[in-house]
Write a structure and sequence with these properties.
- It is a single chain.
- 54% of the residues lie in helices and 0% in strands.
- The chain is mostly helical.
- The protein has a domain of 30 residues.
Length: 50
C-alpha cells in the first residue's frame, strides 16, 4: 500500500439536494470528481486575496 506524503482527514458536510446536484453537474462537466471540485472551491474561497 502506498504511503501518502499529504495525509487527509475525512469530514462530513450537509448540502441541500439542489446544491449537491449543482456541484456534481459542474464536476461532471469539468471531468473531475465531486470531491476534487469541492476542494478547489474551498481552497479558492479561503486563499489569501492579493
Amino acid at each position: 500500500m502506498k504511503k501518502e506524503n499529504n495525509p487527509k482527514e475525512q469530514t462530513t458536510i450537509r448540502l441541500s439536494p439542489e446544491l449537491k446536484e449543482r456541484i456534481q453537474k459542474e464536476a461532471d462537466r469539468k471531468g473531475m470528481s465531486f470531491n476534487e471540485l469541492v476542494l478547489i472551491i474551498l481552497n479558492d474561497w479561503i486563499a489569501p486575496k492579493k
